[in-house]
Every structure is written in C-alpha cells, then in structure tokens.
Amino acid sequence: MSRMVDIANHVAAHAVKLARVGVVSAYPITPQTQVIEEISALIDAGEMDCEYIPVESEHSAMAALIGAAAVGVRSFSATSAHGLAYMHELLHWAAGIRLPMVMVNVNRAMGPGWNIWCDHQDSISQRDTGWIQLYCHSHQEVADTVIQAFRISEDPRVILPVMVNYDAFVLSHSYMQAELPEQEQVDRFLPPFRSAWRLDLDNPLTHGSVIYPNDYEEVRLSMHQAHDNARRVIAEAADEYREITGRYHGALVDLYRMEDAEYALVAMGSLASEARVAVDALREDGLAAGLLRVRSYRPFPREELAEGLGGLRAALIIDRDISFGMEGALFSDCKAALYGRSEALLYNAVTGLGGRDVPYTVMVDELKEIAAGKRREPVSWPTVRLNRHHQDSREGMQRCG
C-alpha cells in the first residue's frame, strides 16, 4: 500500500492509473480540472501507458470515449456541472449502446447564478440516462470506488457506464489521507478489459442505427435488467475488494449505528460524513439515531432501504438537490422504495445547495424536532431557516447598537 496526503482530484487520477486505463478524454472545468491535469502529468512522466485526447468540449470528450470503448479500450473521463449537462445527449448514447466506461463527476451547482461550489443537481439531473451512479464521502472511498467502478462497468452481467460522484471543494480540493493499493492487488481485482463486443474491421457490425418499435422496448428492458444485475455485482465487487485490500465502504448502502436505531439520517456524499458526527451527538443526548448512507443512487437500493428503515419510527432524508415543484429527488425515491413496506415517518431536508455549509448541528436539531413531534411539514430547508435566524439576530444587534 502507498499512502497519499493529497486532494481527492489527485487521488482519483492515481486510481485511474492503477486501473490501467488506455484512453482518457476530457475538457477542463472547475472543479474537475486537476483530475485530468494529474493524469496528463502521469502520462508525460511515462507512468501511464495511456492515450490522452484533448478535445474542444465535453460533448466531444464523451464522443471520443464512446469511440474508444467501442473498439475495446478501457476508457475514462472527468467532468462537472455544465460540462456534464453538455454531455447529456451522449450519456444516453453511451448507456444505450451498452458501452463500459468510467467517468468522475465532481458535483458542482448548476447556474445561473454562477456557482462553483457543491450540490448534487448536476448528477441527479442525469439519473435517467442509464448510467450507474455511485457517491463517495471520503478521499479513501474515491480511490477505491474508481477502481471498483471499472470492475462493475465491465462485468458481463452489466456492461453499462459508471459515474463516480464526489463533492466539489469539500473533497475535490481538500487534503486528506488515502491509501492506494499496490498494482499487483489491482491487477488481481481488475483483469484486462475484454469487450463483449467491439468495432472490428475484420468482423464488421452495425450499432446505433434505426431501431423499430417492436425492438426498441426490448433494448431498454435490457438496460433495466442490467441495473438489476448491477445490484449483485456492486456487492460482489465491494466484498472482493475487501478481501484483497482490507477496505470496505459498503455495497449499495453503508450503515452506521443502525443496529438499535429508532431514528435515522439518510444522506449521500460528504454530507454523510457530517451526518455521522450528528448521529454520535444524538446518541450522547439519548436519542437512538443511526445513519444510512446511500452509496449507489442508480441502481437504487430498494431492498436495503426497506431492511434498514422498515422498523424505525422516523427518518430524515437529506437532499443536496431539489426537484423544483416537488421535493428532494432522494426523498422521492426513498418514499417510493418504502411504500407499503414501512410505517416509518419520512421527512426531507433540502440543504447545502450551492455549497452552503451544513454543520452537523443542523441535522441534530432537525431530527430532535422530528422525534419530539414538532415537525409538521414533510419538506424543509433547514439551513435557509438557520441563516434567516442569524440574519435576524445581526439586524437586531445593529438596531440595538
């Protein structure tokens, strides 16, 4: 094992190196740029046997990746926010034609107004493109999940692209410790890429041409079945990775102090790390709280949610996104997954948008209100309320002064 104290962007780049990626194509966008800069430096130093393709846009970056994966090369890209949105058409294309590849998305708020800080609106808005979506809460999980993502994507039972998401600046630009496995360990876990199909001049095939209604639905069904297969593949990859490296971050979900919990926080990404602190604080105050961290958003962990939350009194689902006119997207999915399977009361906190700080005390206060029966509305914006309170206090002090 080699130990790094570095930013998550550089950690991700070194994980890509260990995965023996053959083609990287990307276009720079804050806060993702350092991933590709580090990969470029590794290639230039002769540490990666990889072709880097500089392009003029994110749309072109995904087009280049589609071409590379279609001829049977392990492929990688990285993007964020509006770059991901610019890829939207080709995200559908990559998944629809069943191409294995991995892309890091450094979660960043969408404009306008222009904002380079974190929320999950960019990746949540791509949830129905067919890509598997995994969310990380630490530098260590970024390193391990990037490697696992190639294994998941290339599994014959799946053959779908995988998006690895982690939060802008909170992870991407902060320095934390991470251990990287040895190359021999990764080679044991991740064998050389063997494409299930590829474009070959000696064996010509046609892909992505016009498809008639009687066949189109079957193609989409196959993608849905691949996501169902991915549930087992994600769990198998996590278990085997633990056997080789000793590290485990959960499969589709990760549980913390849930064994005897009566109330739970549900979160994704770096907010889940803050939620762990909130759970410890709530336990010290005598409230039996736990955390269910959603690691795989697509495929969605229906069974794991039902098992983890089914017997609880209540759960607070924390969304770093908003489906305008409705509620947080994770909240909607949790309600759908638990419908008819749980009597737990479900509440939603929409918070942390645009990088707004969400201290663990906000989560503590919200769950205490729920446990005390003081929370009436299912959806709240707790940090907005908190900041309004602080603003009112400042205005009051100014008037008194």
What's the SSE blueprint?
Layout: E1 2-7, H1 8-18, E2 23-26, H2 33-44, E3 51-54, H3 58-70, E4 75-79, H4 81-86, H5 88-96, E5 102-107, H6 121-124, E6 132-135, H7 139-154, E7 162-167, E8 175-180, H8 183-189, H9 213-245, E9 253-256, E10 263-267, H10 271-284, E11 289-294, E12 296-298, H11 302-309, E13 314-319, H12 329-338, E14 345-350, H13 360-371, E15 379-380, H14 382-400
Parallel strand pairs: 2-3, 2-4, 4-5, 5-7, 6-7, 10-11, 10-13, 13-14, 14-15
Antiparallel strand pairs: 1-8, 6-12, 9-11
Helix pairs in contact: 1-2, 1-7, 3-5, 7-9, 10-13
Question: What structural keywords apply?
Answer:
401 residues; alpha/beta; Rossmann fold; 2 domains; 7-stranded mixed sheet; 18% strand; globular; disordered C terminus
Descriptive account of the structure:
The chain has 401 residues and is an alpha/beta fold. The protein folds into 2 domains: 2-245, Thiamin diphosphate (ThDP)-binding fold, Pyr/PP domains (Rossmann fold, 3-Layer(aba) Sandwich), CATH 3.40.50.970; 253-395, Rossmann fold. The chain has 14 helices and 15 strands. It has helices at residues 8-18, 33-44, 58-70, 81-86, 88-96, 121-124, 139-154, 183-189, 213-245, 271-284, 302-309, 329-338, 360-371, 382-400, and strands at 2-7, 23-26, 51-54, 75-79, 102-107, 132-135, 162-167, 175-180, 253-256, 263-267, 289-294, 296-298, 314-319, 345-350, 379-380. Strands 3-2-4-5-7-6-12 form a 7-stranded mixed sheet, with helices on both faces. It has a 6-stranded mixed sheet with strand order 9-11-10-13-14-15, with helices on both faces. Strands 1-8 form a two-stranded antiparallel ribbon. Helix 1 (8-18) crosses helix 2 (33-44) and helix 10 packs across helix 13. The longest helix is centred in the middle third of the chain and has 33 residues, at 213-245. Mean pLDDT is 94; it is low at 392-401.
